[in-house]
Specification:
Elements lengths: L1 H10 L3 E7 L5 H14 L4 E6 L10 E2 L5 E2 L2 E3 L3 H5 L6 E4 L9 H10 L3 E7 L11 H7 L2 E5 L1 E2 L6 E2 L1 E4 L15 E4 L1 H13 L2
Parallel strand pairs: 1-7, 1-8, 2-5, 2-6, 6-7
Antiparallel strand pairs: 3-4, 9-10, 11-12
């Protein structure tokens, strides 16, 4: 009886964990921390990121404060299923840039017993839900929302304000293009930006 319980436990340990928030909130930092803890526990890990994210490194996942972890850049989420190499833990960074198939990929992995850790922006620069993140948040077992600090007033920031006028949904950038802002400062800055048009 005891052995059966253990076997059942190991078969059902698959989970989906999401770390979300604005830019500069520490999402990638938290993903790296969780992956490193799994490595210390001798678990087999794989990390994936979108091929288009080449800001700090073509291959590695790199946080804003330059912590890095080796990853595999991929074009679409379905490739993850082909490249998991029997991993027990899978990390996915910049999840908002993957297509609509990512939630299904995460579900398939979790149902097969894999711990899936997803990091991504929950909102785009206009304050709207970003990509398939809302669906991933809905199916997640655990959600951690992290916050940056508002660059204007020092409050907790959950918005990524785009400083330059560009309506493309995807525009990779750093502090030269984006600022973390609280709701009040975000609305004020959007108003100012629109009045200059």
């Amino acid at each position: 009886m005891f052995i059966e319980k253990n076997q059942h436990h190991s078969e059902s340990k698959g989970t989906i964990e999401v770390v979300c928030g604005s830019m500069f909130s520490g999402k990638t930092e938290e993903l790296i921390r969780r992956i490193n803890r799994a490595r210390i526990a001798n678990q087999k890990v794989e990390i994936f990121k979108p091929e288009l994210d080449k800001r700090y490194d073509k291959q590695d996942v790199v946080s804003h404060n330059k912590n890095a972890i080796t990853s595999t850049p991929i074009e679409n989420a379905s490739q993850i299923l082909l490249m998991t190499n029997n991993a027990e833990v899978i990390g996915i960074d910049e999840a908002q840039f993957f297509g609509d198939d990512l939630p299904d990929v995460c579900t398939q992995l979790a149902n097969s017993g894999v711990r899936v850790i997803v990091a991504g922006l929950d909102m785009d620069f206009q304050g709207n839900p970003f990509g398939s993140m809302p669906e991933i948040l809905a199916i997640a077992d655990f959600v951690t929302k992290v916050h940056a600090i508002c660059i204007n007033c020092g409050a907790l920031a959950q918005f990524s304000f785009r400083k330059i006028k560009n309506d493309n949904k995807v525009l990779l950038g750093e502090m030269e293009n984006y600022q973390p802002l609280c709701r009040r400062c975000y609305l004020e800055n959007v108003k100012k930006q629109n009045s200059h048009e």
